[in-house]
């Protein structure tokens, strides 16, 4: 089964941008550079200026929105986490699996990390997807 290959308006974040987005998604309200820096520094030594530069780049790319109304600028993610995940997945399936979601799932199952509960949940999701397609 192939995924639609139409151009994607959601920019795909880099690994560093994704780490920053996870911090932004963790809070509902906008965050200052200092708040993002503090959150990132809990798991990795990161320079404040690097976070500032990355947030500026992310705003230019359309990944984050900057609010300049206060002295300390604040940032929020432009796209919700599921939207970015879907964009990254579509890109991965297109590039690594020649557009085949079946091959993606086969490789994931070959890895043997899915528990019996995971497999049962996947089976349920597949049944739901089939039912949804029959309605549509």
Would you write up a description of this structure?
The protein is mainly alpha-helical and 136 residues long. Helix 2 crosses helix 3. Strand 2 and strand 3 form a beta hairpin.
Q: How would you briefly describe this protein structure?
A:
With 136 residues, this protein is mostly helical. 60% of the residues lie in helices and 7% in strands. It has a three-stranded antiparallel β-sheet with strand order 1-3-2.
Furnish the topology, listing elements before pairings.
Elements: H1 15-26, E1 31-32, H2 33-41, H3 48-61, E2 64-67, E3 74-77, H4 81-96, H5 101-110, H6 116-135
Antiparallel strand pairs: 1-3, 2-3
Helix pairs in contact: 2-3
What characteristic shape results from the CA principal axes? elongated
**Largest sheet, strands/sense/barrel:** 3 strands, antiparallel
Rounded to the nearest angstrom, the distance between the terminal CA atoms is 17 Å
Radius of gyration: 19 Å
Q: How many strand segments?
A: 3
Structural class call reads mainly alpha
* Portion in beta strands: 5-15%
Sequence stretches where pLDDT stays below 50 over 5 or more residues? 1-8
Q: What is the N-to-C succession of helices and strands? A: HEHHEEHHH
Strand order of the largest sheet: 1-3-2
